[in-house]
Amino acid sequence: MKTFTAVFIKQVKDSLRNLPSLMVILIYPAVAWIMITAMGSQEDMSGFFVPVFAAMHCSFAPIMISSSILSEEKEKGTLRSLMMAGVSMVNYLISISVFVVLAAMLTGSLFLMMDHSTSSYAVTFTLAMLAGEVLSTLAGLCIGIYSKNVAAANGMAVPVGLVLALLPMLARFNDGIAKAAEYTYSGQISHLLEGGDVTAKAICVMAAYFAALWAVLIFLFKRSSME
Amino acid sequence: MNNGSVISLEHVTRSFGDRLILKSVSLNVNKGEIFGLLGPSGAGKTTIINILTGQLSCGGSAEIFGVSCGKIGGEVYRRTGAVLDNCGLYERLTCADNLRLYARIHGVAFSRIKEALALVGLDGCEGKKVKALSKGMKQRLALARAILHKPELLFLDEPTSGLDPATAAEIHSLMNDLRRDGTTVFLTTHNMDEAYRMCDRIALLSDGTIVECGEPGELCRRHCSTSELRIVAVDGEKLSIANTPENAEAVAGLIRGGRLQSIHSSEPDLGTVFLRLTGKELDK
User: Fold this and answer.
1) pLDDT tens-digit profile of B65-112?
2) What part of B 133-172 touches A (C-beta under 8 Å)?
3) Domain ranges of chain A
4) Are B29 and B13 in contact (CB under 8 A)?
5) Complex confidence, ipTM
């Protein structure tokens, strides 16, 4: 528990001093607020902007942040120092994951303040965001473990994050993309954030991604432990 | 493992792909000594530290405090500290925040942070961000982090590499203080002067093999029974002759003939020992 606390506190302090990380985690709530405020006098657009940007936020931000934290630690040698102080890789990954999910949830909760929906929608919204952030954090950890440095991690995380984040929005304008988006977890999260029902398909798609990302993470973890 | 040995390696091997980096390394490090692993870049020094700290697997037997290096857990890590080639510091955090992280991990009181910083000459730098520190100060901060929890065994991987002489001297002074307190130090370096002055025993590593091991002075005596005279004549000719009575007349002849520009005695050193044993320069 003390290594979890130590790494978690370190990450809070480090991220608060990391401007690019702060921008990534605040950009989508900020843009949504600006759009809603700009349109405010004409009509209430929160019902449109909030689900769109919330889906982008929970798909993109955790991937970018978790992959950059992990790859930066590898590049700077800080991860090795932690391991040599007795912090196990599992403990480290748990601390970082909890931090990323909490940070994304905290900033993601700003979307709820912009929307004026019912409390039952707030519960669905929060659970859907949580699911998206957990899945994106797993994806980010996979990229972080696989990459040797921050540049390599960003090279993978940006396109993956953008595809996952933009697909649900593009699906609104193109039926072909909409069909494809149904088979991505971000597509399903977006569907839930828009107030859609929790369907068996949504659960199956997210469960499949969860299982696949876990399998990839375990494979990459074992491979890195053997080096 | 010998009685009193803190580190024991027996026939340790390690490959990276097809490249055999460590061929069959055997050595023991006794409690309370400064042990130097001396070898040129790429000889396998850092690989040995990585094996000893449980970061790499290996063939043969590698033990630290009697525990196989493949099974090192929190208890052994609490008894060791390390300063690696890469400082591994969080650049955006302050010196104190960097040490607080490790104080929490090791369960050390925060009051020890000030002590550790003072020991390495960084008193008053608690609030300074690491990215604002010079290379020498970062190395000293890494040393403060390594000794924060008062480890019994300290790994120092090229601790003075690239540092100015004054900072290197401060680190040497701290190593002597640690030895006096009973800390065992495992030092890797390619600096023969550092190894000669600081280490109780050294091992010479070349191409993944220990070619010699013992006290530095004893190794020099064993492998270099005679010293040499290096002479530069007025016409620029460079001569190297054995410092023996038989050559006295030749040297005197140069002086009498007015041909001598400079003369220096060349004492046997670890570089010479290494050259004789491996045919390679140590500093390369």
Assistant:
1) 989 988 888 888 889 999 887 788 999 999 999 999 999 999 999 999
2) 145
3) 2-226
4) no
5) 0.85
